[in-house]
Amino acid sequence: MNPLLIAGGGIGGMALALALTRQGQSVHLFERGLEFSQEGAGIQLGPNATRLLNEWGLADALRQYATFPDELQIHCAQYGHTLATKNLSHQMEQLFGAPYVTLHRADLHDLLMQAVASQETATISTQQSFQASRNTDEGIEVDFFNFESKVKQTIHGSVLIGSDGVQSDVRQSLLGDGPPTDIGHVAYRSLLSQKMLPKRLHSSNVHVWLGPRMHMVVYPVRGGVWLNVVLIVKSLQVPASYDWTINRQSDVIYQDFKTALKGCCNRVQELVRHIEQWKSWKLVNRPAVQNPLQLARGKIALIGDAAHPILPYLAQGAGMAIEDAHVLSQCWVSEETQSSETKLHNYAKQRYKRVARVQKKSSQNSAIFHADGVLRHARDLSLRLLGLQLIDMPWLYAGPD
Q1: What is the rounded CA–CA span in Å between residue 19 and residue 23?
Q2: Which range of residues forms the domain containing residue 378?
Q3: Domain tally for the chain?
Q4: For residue 168, is it within any domain?
Q5: Cβ atoms within 10 Å, residue 243
Q6: Are 211 and 76 in contact (CB under 8 A)?
Q7: What are the residues whose beta carbons fall under 8 Å from the beta carbon of 275, sequence distance 6 or more?
Q8: CATH number at residue 300
Q9: What pTM did the predictor assign?
Q10: Could you tell me if residue 66 is inside a domain?
C-alpha cells in the first residue's frame, strides 16, 4: 500500500509520523530544509499534549529534556506585584494524568525525530519542496522539487498531509486563501543562562508579566539551566521579514522594544538588561476555523499551523499540532473499512470546533494581556479577586474528545 505523505517536518509533521508508524503505517515525510533547524524558542506543553507524548513512549525522553515548573505566576509588569498563581505540578497530574512541562522547541523536535527515525516504516527526505498534487485511482501523486538535484520528482502516496507551517504551500493548493494577516505584534525571544544571572533572577516557575501594549513570559528550559524569555509588543514598525536577529545597540526596530519596557518594574528591567541579542518574529493570524472543509478536502488534510495558526497567548501552538497528529492517526487506523477521503474528513470533523475555540481564546487573550487604561485596571482587579477561576482551563487540559 502507498505510504501517507507528509509535507513539512516540524513538530506537527514529526508527531504525526510517529503516531502513524507506531501503529504500523508506512509514512514518507518531506522537509524543505537541508537539515532540521535547531533554531527556535521555548515551548510550554500542557497535560493535553504531554499525555499523548507519554502514550507514544516518550515519557523517559521527555524527562531528560523538559523542565517541570511548580507554578504559573501572573504579575503586573508596571508595579511587580503578583496578580494570580496557578499550581502546575502535582495538581496538574492529579487532575489530568500528565504533567505540565516547559522545554526548548529544538529539544522537543529532536526527541520526536529520534523516535520517528527508529521506526522501520518511516522515511524522511530533506531538501524537498511541495509543488503540486493530483488524485489517482490508487491515491495521490505529489510533485516535490529537490533542491539538491534541481529536478522535480513525483511521489505516489495514499494521502497528503500538509504540516508545512503558517506559510503553507499545501494549504494554498487546497484552499487558495492567500497569506495570513499581520496583527501588528512582534515577539522578541532570547535564552539566558541561569548561572550567569544573579540568584534573585533565577526561576523554576513560569512567570507572565502583563503591561500596557506588551507582555513578557519567562520560564526555565533544558532542565532549568536556561531561562526562555519572550517579550511580545504592539509595534508600529512590523518588519517585512518573519524572522531576524536584532542587536539592541544598533537596530532601529529596538525603539519599539524600549518604548514597551518604559515604566516596567525593576525585576523586568533588570532581567532584560542581561540580554544582549534577541531573535524577533512578527505575529500573523487567520480567522478561526469555521468548518471541516478548511482542514481536509478529498485526499489532502492540514495539521498544525498550516491548518490553524494559533497566536502565542494561550501557549497551545505545539499542543494543538500534537493533538492533530493523535486524532488523525486514530481516524486513519480505527476506520480501516472506510475510504481515505472519509478518514480525513472524520479527522476534520473531530478537530475543527476544538481548534477554533483555542484560536478564539488565544486572540481574546491578546487583547486582555495588552490592555491599557480602565480595561487594564479591571483585568488586574479581576485576577486578584478571582485568580484561579479566570485562568483555570480544564476543558483545554483534558485533551481532545
Answers
A1: 7
A2: 4-179+287-397
A3: 1
A4: yes
A5: 11
A6: yes
A7: 190, 192, 229, 248
A8: 3.50.50.60
A9: 0.95
A10: yes
